[in-house]
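= Protein in question =
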Amino acid sequence: MKRPSKDDRDPAQHWLTPLAQPVDQSTDDKSQAGADKMPRGTLHRSRRFRLGRRFFTGLLGVALILGGLAYFNRYALMAWIEGRDAEVLIMVETLPRNAQVFVDGVRSTSKTIALERSERRFTITVKRRGYHSKEVTVSALRTRTLRVHLVAKGKRGRRDPCPRAMRSLINAGERYCIDRYEAPGRGRTPRSGLTLAAARALCHQRGARLCTVREWINACGGRFPYGSAYGAGRCNTGGKALKKSGAMRGCRSPRGLYDMSGNVSEWVDDGVVMGGDVASAKGNASCRASATQGGRFAGVRCCADPAWR
């Protein structure tokens, strides 16, 4: 029998022939096995990553928009409230803190002064005995905070930027004042057993503040106040009893401050005590020695900001 040619075949059978070809089962099994070995979620990992990135980008954009609206609305609300209020408040902050405040020559019993809103200008005078008085002219159009620093009267009428019991120093371009002696002053037994809160309150009572670590180290000098090597007997160290502030004349820093090593350790605003105490010796009584616990020999040396205006 004659074999039919390609042209004599049934057209339907001719077009279905490619679809009826056998499938390579070995290749299909390999692909299925490879898919089974892939970690769970690998096929959708890139899609989840893109969705997560879009979500967090949108969330960040919403947060920035809400933050900008809150910042704008805050000042808009303050301006609206001040526009409706018939009075404005002038809050006067003074250094020293117990200075007296006068408004147009009349003494004010409070440092928060209520003035009628107007274009009139008021003269605020700040006075304290032993300091040069200062006058500031302000308008009563908006609520504001006024900071006034009085300069102590120095010797021979000279304007000294710091009180007499303090030394004027510069640290990182900023001028500050620091006590020459441990509180309460020269020739007196220093206060001891103070906590951080008590030391801060003691300084605030006299219109001062606690020193920072950098200010304290800058005033102390090198490794020790008197030099680079420890000297037994130069300061009140390695003992048991406190001595009056300034009694150890050899315990003087290059900046002219006394007892920055030993006697009482001194609280600073960073929450540590510096310089060691009477029971300390050698490295524990250096300018960079610090401790987080005050103890029975913890005292204080105050600082102040002459440039605070």
Q: What stands out?
A: The longest helix spans residues 45-84. Residues 85-149 form a domain with the Immunoglobulin-like fold (CATH 2.60.40).
